[in-house]
From TrEMBL:
Segments forming domain HTH LytTR-type: 9-98
Name of this protein: HTH LytTR-type domain-containing protein
Pfam families registered for this protein in UniProt: LytTR
Database matches in SMART domains: LytTR
Gene Ontology molecular functions: DNA binding
Database matches in Gene3D superfamilies: LytTr DNA-binding domain (2.40.50.1020), PAS domain (3.30.450.20)
Residue runs in coiled coils: none
Length: 239
């Protein structure tokens, strides 16, 4: 965190998890906290948000940033907070981003459905073929920018040489910071448009040639099975 902002937070006993929302009002940035305090500063809202944990705050409109874990529901561009306050979001929000937000915040049934989807794959935990389920992540323009691992069986963790704790709910490009963006394009196509897809590619992250079988288990998700391509046999010496 920027030293100036860190000093300001320390002075006013502010922690990121205590913030409900940050709004611009009368030329000042107002940081609204769980304990009822409102701490004002002339530091731009965007400057503060940039120093926060990625995806913890959502810019729903100009001068309004909400803590994502304190949003209760979204309806007709209105964001209802857990404390009862509500804020109007952008009226012309891109459809993909609207879908992503509604899936995250609105429906208990949708949340439970997501858990049920992931739990259904537990029967594959010990399958000897690497298998995972990934979920698309979007930016505020509705473009897919990353994906996170929602399920990975034991063979998948062996393939990646990572534990489940290191994989699950982590974004691909946080784990593999130099990962090729072409993986995202292929997975997004299946997750959004359905159907299935098979493609072959070299993965520099694990230094292996792979055949990847993908299909859409639910909208916004892509399930993938990985088969390692056998190495070409060495040519035999024939006289």
């Amino acid at each position: 965190m920027d030293k100036k902002i860190q000093k300001f937070f320390t002075k006013h006993h502010i922690t990121e998890t205590d913030i409900k929302y940050i709004i611009r009002r009368d030329g000042k940035t107002c940081i609204c906290l769980d304990d009822g305090r409102i701490v004002e500063t002339y530091t731009p809202l965007k400057t503060i948000i940039t120093e926060m944990t990625p995806d913890h705050f959502i810019n729903v409109n100009k001068g309004i940033a909400l803590a994502s874990d304190k949003i209760a529901s979204i309806h007709d561009d209105q964001y209802m907070m857990q404390d009862g306050n509500h804020f109007k979001g952008r009226a012309r929000m891109p459809m993909l981003y609207r879908f992503e937000q509604e899936r995250r915040f609105n429906s208990t049934e949708m949340v439970n459905g997501s858990s049920d989807l992931i739990n259904a794959f537990s029967v594959l935990d010990r399958m000897p073929i690497p298998f995972c389920v990934i979920e698309l992540l979007y930016d505020n323009t509705g473009n897919s920018i990353d994906f996170r691992f929602r399920y990975a069986n034991e063979a998948m963790t062996d393939l990646q040489s990572l534990s489940r704790e290191q994989l699950l709910n982590e974004s691909f490009y946080n784990i593999f910071r130099n990962g090729d963006r072409k993986w995202l394009v292929a997975y997004a196509d299946v997750a959004l448009n359905g159907g299935s897809r098979i493609f072959r590619d070299y993965s520099p992250e694990i230094n292996k040639e792979l055949m990847i079988y993908c299909y859409q288990p639910s909208e916004g998700y892509c399930a993938c099975a990985f088969l390692e391509e056998p190495e070409d046999p060495a040519p035999s010496n024939q006289s």
